[in-house]
Write a structure and sequence with these properties.
- The chain has 125 residues and is of the alpha/beta class.
- The protein has 2 domains: 57 residues, Signal recognition particle alu RNA binding heterodimer, srp9/1, CATH 3.30.720.120; 67 residues, Roll (2,3-Dihydroxybiphenyl 1,2-Dioxygenase, domain 1), CATH 3.10.180.
- It is globular and about 40 Å long.
- It has a 4-stranded mixed beta sheet, covered by helices on one side. The chain has a 4-stranded mixed beta sheet with strand order 5-8-7-6, covered by helices on one side.
């Protein structure tokens, strides 16, 4: 690639290829890398990506935070037009809805590896 302005986040996972396929389907993004070390997805336009790296000792974070367990150190936010439809789609793909929901127009979801991500509408985050 001739671009030099890419940026992204990397999530650890016990199955990075499966997680890449989950986010590709969830977001409609293309899988741009897929090999034995990991995978990445990116939108059709833009400079950002989400990569997934194999971690044999992966421990999923817990949301909300609890004492002496793996804490969330970051999460992804995705603005959607129809929150109910986006939640239903995420559930169909294998996400889980967190029991703790801090806002009415935001849904905290957990991807198949347990990483939290938020689906939100109406400009809230």
């Amino acid at each position: 690639m001739s671009r030099h302005d890419w940026w992204g986040v990397v999530l650890e996972s016990p199955d990075p290829l499966a997680l890449a396929h989950f986010y590709s389907e969830l977001l409609g993004w293309e899988i741009t890398k897929e090999d034995s070390d990991g995978a990445a997805v990116a939108p059709p336009e833009g400079v950002g990506y989400i990569a997934f790296q194999f971690s044999g000792g992966y421990v999923p974070p817990v949301w909300p935070a609890q004492v002496n367990v793996q804490r969330v150190t970051m999460h992804l936010d995705f603005e959607v037009v129809d929150l109910q439809a986006a939640v239903a789609h995420a559930l169909e793909l294998g996400a889980r809805e967190s029991e703790h929901q801090p806002q009415n127009n935001v849904r905290v979801m957990l991807d198949p590896a347990g990483h939290p991500f938020c689906l939100y509408a109406d400009g809230a985050s």
